[in-house]
Specification:
globular, two-stranded antiparallel sheet, 4% helix, Elongation Factor Tu (Ef-tu), domain 3, single chain, 122 residues, mainly beta, 9-stranded antiparallel β-sheet
């Protein structure tokens, strides 16, 4: 059950955990739930649509310090990712993998993970 059920509270922050290790995420980030992408089928008219499966993904920026292990993050290929929004919703991405080498941009490092699906657990 979400920790804040106020209908005027909207999500702005998220926390991610990789195999239980929580990363101190900066404000923002992107979470894409798994589902279907629907594309138009057109000719003389719009006939309908086709569907393509889309996996779950998350991208966040985390501050880096002397304890940040770039190699460990780069090597994560079979991890369980929890995405928790500040509204209390929690999504689980199992057997997830890091998609790109860690990139430092002067503010922090970007972490990007993908998985076949995300399912709501809280």
């Amino acid at each position: 059950m979400p920790k804040n059920q106020n209908p005027r509270h909207y999500a702005k922050h998220m926390v991610i955990r990789s195999n239980g290790k929580e990363y101190p995420t900066l404000e923002g980030g992107t979470f894409t739930h798994s589902g279907k992408q629907r594309d138009d089928v057109t000719g003389k008219i719009l006939y309908g649509f086709t569907e393509t499966a889309v996996g779950a993904s998350v991208s966040v920026v985390v501050p880096a310090n002397h304890e940040t292990d770039f190699e460990d993050i780069n090597d994560q290929t079979d991890v369980t990712i929890e995405v928790e929004l500040d509204t209390g919703q929690i999504y689980l991405m199992q057997n997830a993998w890091n998609t790109t080498p860690v990139t430092f941009n002067g503010t922090g490092i970007t972490l990007e993970f993908k998985a076949q699906e995300a399912r709501k657990i809280g």
